[in-house]
Amino acid sequence: MNDLGNLIKSRREELSMTQRDLAKMTGTNNATISRIESGEIIKPDSSILYELSSALKLDYLFLLSLAGYISIDEELRQIIRLYEHSSAEEKKKIFDVLQKEFDFKMDYYISDFR
Q1: Is 50 exceeded by the pLDDT of residue 112?
Q2: What's the pLDDT tens digit per position in 20-78?
């Protein structure tokens, strides 16, 4: 097993789900879930990772990172999670501080987060 497979399996078991339950929730089949958990599939399609993140209540960016789609350090992941769980007012404050601190147009760099 790899880190991604271990995480998926342990979280699924923690939530008392079978592979079949998880497959139904993600729109895939239990053979695919089994192959991900065993490490046979080490880089599942990003759409499957998205569905897994939703079903297992895991961070999507973290799953993308474990699968090798992106490289993201822990600090940046924590900042993104903070931003995602902030109110609209808090997001504006975060954005304003970043824009002021770095003195450039943040819209170009983080437009996907707005």
Answers
A1: no
A2: 999 999 999 999 999 999 999 999 999 999 999 999 999 888 899 889 888 777 777 77
- Alpha-carbon distances, residue 92 vs 87, 95, 98 (angstroms): 9, 5, 10
Report the alpha-carbon distance of residue 75 to residue 114 in Å, rounded.
Answer: 20
Write out the two tokens for 92: 């504006």
Sketch out the chain's domains with CATH numbers. 3-67 (1.10.260.40), 74-113 (no CATH)
pTM, rounded to two decimals: 0.66
Residue with tokens 């007012």: 89
Q: Which residues, including other chains, have CB under 8 Å from residue 43's CB and lie 6 or more apart?
A: 67, 68, 69
Structure tokens at 98: 């970043």
Per-residue pLDDT at 113 exceeds 80: no
Q: Is 68 helix (H, G, I), strand (E, B) or coil?
A: coil
* Contact status, residue 82 vs residue 59, Cβ threshold 8 Å: no
Q: Is the dihedral of CA 79, 81, 83, 86 positive or negative?
A: negative
